[in-house]
Design a protein that fits this description.
59% of the residues lie in helices and 8% in strands. It is an alpha+beta fold. The chain folds into two domains: 190 residues, no CATH class; 138 residues, Histidine kinase-like ATPase, C-terminal domain (Heat Shock Protein 90). It has a six-stranded mixed sheet with strand order 1-2-3-6-5-4. The longest helix is centred in the middle third of the chain and has 88 residues.
């Protein structure tokens, strides 16, 4: 929606009336035409306004009422036409006492309610009201000197009965034209407010759709990251064990069978985790699935020992150390710690070379919890600079390391990845806890 079309803009225009609205106006005009014709007939039967010929009266009835069919499409023209016809009917004695006033009121009201040119609407109404009051004052002054006009009203005194009659006529016309002006403006403002509300509702609906689409995208990214962590870890274990089984199959069938058992267990664990995560994508069907103990939502610090055992089984010795007093931490931080440790150990098996030893340390501090994984390997590594929640630029290659960075940044932590001065590799992730606990 452009600025000009915005309901909050001074240049906003009320939309043109629809087909049903125009048909409704036609019926209103026809009803008013019939009612005005009946009112004129009764007026003439009462001996009032009898001078005009019938054809003139019929023409006046048509011109005062039927143009109201177009009062919403061309309100200014209709109002000017109704005003001129109304005055002409009174001067030619072809008018009535009731429905002609209703027709004029509706025409002036429509200018305020439906005009799409607000400056023109203002001056058209000013001209009509000014003209009508000028005509009224002229009529009062002329009739004041004509004793045959309303002879029952005395003209004597400072505030004579005729003067009171004139003031009453002015007051009635003020109320009449003021009401037409006020309610016309109120109808236009109401339409503008409704358009603004509808526009806001439409924008909010669009924003909800965008937010929902963004949430779906973020969820897909999260699931993709989880899938990468699960697949990379278990496939790495299976690869190491498969290689070991192939080398010792002929010389030590028993140990080869143990390696195949580990491969089978890793495959089942991977399938269980994949089943749990992908169940979130199946909608209501996922509600009937039984959760497994390997669900990614239950992974956390408590499962670090399982990671160390799997790594040892895969041929990479890992020493797990917990430093400081253990305490409850948010589940999202626990999951991030688990996944970072999983990715780090997977990378160690892939890149650190033979004979590598690994340290896995979890350190509880006063205001943070820190995970540190170090090894003494000599294999090629992807170098990674320090990064944190501030969003400092880093040079990242590989989905695993990028996933580490995203996990740490998502909870306001700090991450360092890189080679150690004495050889090997270091992964250190620090997660603040004070703000979360006090929140």
């Amino acid at each position: 929606m452009s600025t000009t079309d915005s309901p909050l803009s001074d240049e906003w225009q009320r939309p043109s009336p629809s087909g049903p609205s125009l048909r409704k106006d036609l019926w209103v005009a026809l009803v008013l035409a019939g009612a005005t014709a009946l009112s004129v007939s009764l007026t003439r039967s009462a001996g009032v306004f009898t001078e005009a010929p019938v054809w003139q009266v019929a023409l006046w009835v048509a011109l005062i009422s039927l143009p109201l069919t177009l009062r919403r499409r061309w309100p200014e023209i209709v109002a000017i036409t109704a005003s001129v016809v109304f005055a002409a009917g009174t001067m030619l004695a072809a008018s009535d006492m009731l429905f002609s006033n209703i027709c004029l009121y509706l025409a002036i009201y429509s200018v305020g309610a439906w005009s799409r040119h607000r400056v023109a609407a203002k001056w058209v109404r000013v001209a009509i009201v000014a003209g009508m009051f000028t005509w009224l004052f002229a009529q009062i002054m002329v009739q004041a000197n004509q004793m045959t006009m309303m002879p029952e009203l005395s003209r004597d005194g400072f505030f004579s009965p005729y003067a009171a009659f004139g003031v009453l006529q002015v007051f009635i016309n003020l109320v009449y034209f003021g009401a037409a002006w006020y309610f016309g403006e109120s109808a236009w403002n109401s339409a503008r407010n409704n358009a603004a509300l509808q526009s806001s509702t439409t924008e909010l609906a669009a924003e909800r759709e965008r937010s929902a689409a963004q949430a779906i995208t973020l969820e897909r990214v999260r699931i993709a990251r989880e899938l990468h962590d699960v697949v990379a870890h278990h496939v790495s274990v299976m690869g190491v064990q498969a290689g070991a089984a192939r080398r010792i199959l002929s010389s030590d069938p028993g140990q080869a069978a143990d390696a195949l058992t580990i491969i089978e267990q890793s495959a089942r664990s991977a399938v269980d985790e994949l089943h749990t995560m992908l169940g979130a994508l199946r909608g209501d069907d996922a509600q009937g699935a039984e959760p497994t103990s390997q669900s990614s939502s239950t992974r956390g610090i408590a499962q670090l020992g399982e990671l160390a055992d799997e790594s040892r089984t895969a041929g990479v010795p890992v020493r797990l150390s917990v430093i400081g007093d253990e305490r409850m931490i948010p589940a999202i931080i626990g999951l991030s710690i688990y996944r970072i440790a999983q990715e780090a150990l997977t990378n160690t098996r892939k890149h650190a070379g033979p004979g590598v030893r690994t340290e896995l340390r979890l350190r509880y501090e006063t205001d943070a919890v820190e995970l540190e994984i170090t090894d003494d390997g000599v294999g090629p590594r992807r170098q990674f600079a320090a990064t944190g929640a501030s969003g400092a630029s880093v040079e990242a290659t590989g989905l695993g390391q990028r996933g580490m960075r995203e996990r740490v940044a998502a909870v306001g932590g700090e991450l360092h990845l890189g080679g150690r001065p004495r050889g090997g590799y270091l992964v250190r992730a620090r997660f603040p806890l004070v703000n979360r606990e006090n929140a």
